[in-house]
Amino acid sequence: SALSFQVLLKSDAPTGDVLLDETLRHIKATESAETVQTWIDLLTGETWNPFKLQYQLRNVRERIAKALVEKGILTTEKQNFLLFDMTTHPVSNATEKQRLVKKLQESMLERWVNDPHRMDRRTLALLVLAHSSDVLENVFASLEDDKYSVAMNRTKDLLDMDPEVEAAKARGAEMIWAVLAAFNK
Question: Greater confidence, 37 or 51?
């Protein structure tokens, strides 16, 4: 099943991204291959398996936010919530956000291919991650009602496909379907 797909390292060449490179080192250091679900749990900090603590990434959200601040996509602000101050990271570069929103909108409307295996893999991965992060509705919110309905229906049909069946047909996108299966469980 897609949930039992094991992550095998093809290359440990540095990517230039601190978190990705750290992830590669963790995957390389495992004695036996772990499943997609296990890596999602470890890399998001969602598990407290004492036998796997050395593979967990620390402060993932904060580190991602910091990297996006350094790239000029987000900014850092202090917000006062009743009794305490909280650091928030609002978008400062709306251009990059709009580029991604437009890419997803177009993939579900003007450039719709009606076959997930003919979709650009990065776009499919972005769609799965937006869905898993509960921001997909926001992506289509600016559309006119009829286009919103079409985009949401196509997205629902795509995300309701059986990840097991699609992973078996995927030819290079098996991990994307395995990630969807892990988030859908």
Answer: 37
